[in-house]
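[step 3/7] fold_predict: job queued, chain A
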Amino acid sequence: MISEHQTRHKFSSGLLSYMFGLMFTLMYLVAILSGVVGEFVAGAAQLQPVSPNSMIHVGGALGPFDLAIFCLIVGAVLIMFLWEENYGCKAPGHDSRQAEGSMMLNVAESVRLCFNDRRLWLVGLIVASFEGSMYAFVFNWTPALESSEVPPPYGLIFALFMMACMSGAAISTMSDGFIKPLTRLALSFGAGAIALGTAASCSGNLKLSFASFLVFEFCVGVYFPSVGIIKSEVVPENVRGTMYNIYRVPLNAVVVGLLLTNMSIVRIYEFCAFLLGVALVSICGIMFATSPRPLDPKVVKNV
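[step 4/7] structure written:
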């Protein structure tokens, strides 16, 4: 999207922050509706086999997953007919050997840039720390809110989480003129660490845990539009795709590591609060880092 915005269509860099905010606000709005619809679909029919003794079931908790299949098909059709391919700096007719060589050159160039500009690996550390804690939260919020007295309405709870995210994205967009993305990220990392630390220390208190989760989801809403601006300014366009994929290596390592360690919910939220502390230190490192290469003044104005 950054390449489309800045390179192909040559839109103003000042609109990039607005575009990120609008994109995530609309995404969270759709997620809110999905949570409500998913809750309705899950309760509309009981879980039952499609035929006697069949292993294939429909209804119940499977209903939202079946509905998701339809949504994915609609998305695939829209992409096929409405999206143009984006090859970046590569020509559409490059052969596989050129592609392999280009990939290795991009990886080597990305590693070299990380050594020359510490902001690049600090951004990777931020992505791994914050998004790792976010995915760990995704896997563990349902058991944290389980109740033997009243079955939690998971679809409505998810919709409220997404409403908190949408509020964070909207605040991020509205405050763009007077709060820099780096400052917004620092504030969201600090608030998120406090929220997950509170959830860890007050495990079993459903009301306080739920309130803490809402605060964390608000921070998630602030994070994505803000970090998108930071990455658009820090990561060079010629290695953007490669660098973003490199960022996902430590992120996936954090998530898989948390899932395989079989830690208790309390320990997981404590570790997630620690990761957010690491992200906070990293964003402070970017604030005081100097750029080794000229920056686009239009982009710097937004950062």
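[step 5/7] annotate
The CA atoms of residues 49 and 56 lie 6 Å apart.
The beta strands are 48-49, 57-58.
exit 0
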